[in-house]
TrEMBL record:
Designated name of the protein: Response regulator transcription factor
Superkingdom of source: Bacteria
Protein species of origin: Nocardioides hwasunensis
Residue ranges occupied by any Response regulatory domain in the UniProt entry: 11-130
Keywords, ordered alphabetically: Phosphoprotein
InterPro entries listed in its UniProt record: CheY-like_superfamily (IPR011006), Sig_transdc_resp-reg_receiver (IPR001789)
Modified residues (4-aspartylphosphate): 66
């Protein structure tokens, strides 16, 4: 059986200085959070320069950035990406608390999910961000 190009995995960048946070995100989403989406391929990143390098390469479909990461927080990185990358892919920011959602808005992230990570809330946000880019099959 041949696979259509849309069956190729989509790359999701997961940034946090904390390996446990990266693992929580990946475990919460799994390989395919929704049947309408292609399989996800994760790019785990622990430092800001590597986030910028991966995003500049242009093959990332979604960036999930930890707003609590140090020394570079995900919200500041999100704002930089949105300011500097033409047609920047969607960004989801993990906030320290639900009350920090306004900061995610400032960062121009398309979605925010608070710590501790709720797998259902995270999956719904990711599906909402990736679904518009999934080509319709006719």
């Amino acid at each position: 059986m041949s696979h259509a190009p849309s069956d190729r995995p989509v790359k999701v960048l997961v940034y946090s200085d904390d390996v446990n946070t990266r693992q929580q995100v990946i475990l919460a989403l799994g390989r395919r959070p929704h049947p309408d989406l292609p399989e996800l391929e994760y790019v785990e990143v622990a430092t800001e320069p590597v986030v910028i390098q991966n995003m500049d390469a242009g093959d990332i479909a979604l960036a999930i950035l930890d707003g609590e990461a140090v020394p570079a927080g995900g919200m500041g990185i999100a704002k930089q990406l949105k300011d500097e990358i033409y047609q920047c892919p969607p960004v989801l920011v993990l906030t320290g608390r639900p009350q920090d959602a306004w900061l995610a808005t400032w960062s121009r992230a398309e979605a925010a999910v608070p710590h501790p990570i709720d797998p259902i809330q995270l999956a719904e946000a990711v599906i909402g961000l990736l679904r518009p880019s999934v080509p319709a099959t006719h």
